[in-house]
Amino acid sequence: MSIxxxxxxxxxxxxxxxxxxxxxEELFSIGINPYFINKEDIEKTILRxxxxxxxESVRRLYFYGSGxxxxxxxxxxxxxxxxxxxxxxxxxxxxxxxxxxxxFGDSKGVACILGTGSxxxxxxxxxxxxxxNSLGYIIGDQASGAYIGKELVRAYFQKDMPADIRSxxxxxxxxxxxxxxxxxxxxxxxxxxxxxxxxxxxxxxDNEFINSLISDAIDKFINLQxxxxxxxxxxxxxxxxxxxxxYFKDILIKALNNNDYQVGKIIKAPMEGLLDYHAD
Length: 280
Description:
This protein is of the alpha/beta class. Helix content is 46%, strand content 24%. It has a five-stranded mixed sheet, with helices on both faces. α1 packs parallel to α3, α4 (95-104) packs across α14 (271-277) and α11 (208-224) packs across α13 (249-258).
C-alpha cells in the first residue's frame, strides 16, 4: 500500500509516492488547475505518469492545487483522481492550504504564495481565518510569475524597456508580437506562458530597470493583497511559498521590513513541509 501527496501549481505538479517500505518516489507532470484543464485531461495526465500497479496500491491521496479553492473545482479534480485511483481515499485542498501547512504546520501565520499565481491568507490551527480573492492573472495575481512576465512583455512592446536590457530580452526570448498575441489570447495556459518570461528577470536582477520592475510588483502585492488583511503584525509572521518569492527573496524581505512585517520562512516549494505534516 502507498500514499500520494501531490502539490500542483498552474505550471507543474509534483507527485510524491510514499511506499510501505519507506521509499519516496518523486514524479512531475503538467500543472492541474481545474480552471484550465478538464476532467478527461487530468485523467490522461496521470495515466501517462503513473503505471497501473502503482495506482492500484494507493490507499490515500492528498492533492493540493491552484484553482482548488471552490467546491466545484475541488469536486472536478476529486472525481478525476477517484477514477484513476479507485481504491484510494481522496482529499483535495487548495494550494494555499498547502502553503499554510508547509510553512506553519498546526500553528499560526500569514501564508503567501508567489509562484505562477499569487495569493495570501491568515492561517491558524489548520484553517484560514481571513483571506481575499487574488482574482487571477488577468485582474490580479500581483507579483506572480504571470504578472511579472506580463509586465516584461508590456514594457518590451510599449518601449518602456531600456535599450541595454531590451537587447538581452530579445536574445533570451526571441519574442515576436504575433506569437505573444496567439499564446495569450488563443492558446491554453496563457498564465504559464507569461510566467515563462520571469526567469529572465532573475538572471538580470542587478539591472536597474529589472530590479525596479520586481520591486514595484512586490510592493503591489504587499499593498493590494497582504495589506488588505487585518491581522496583528506583531503577532503573526508572514511566510512565502513559490519560485518568485524564493528567487527574489532579497527584494521581498526588504519590502516586508519596510512595511513592518515579521518575515517567516521563504521556501521554493511546499512538498518538504507537507511530507513532514503528513508523516503520521
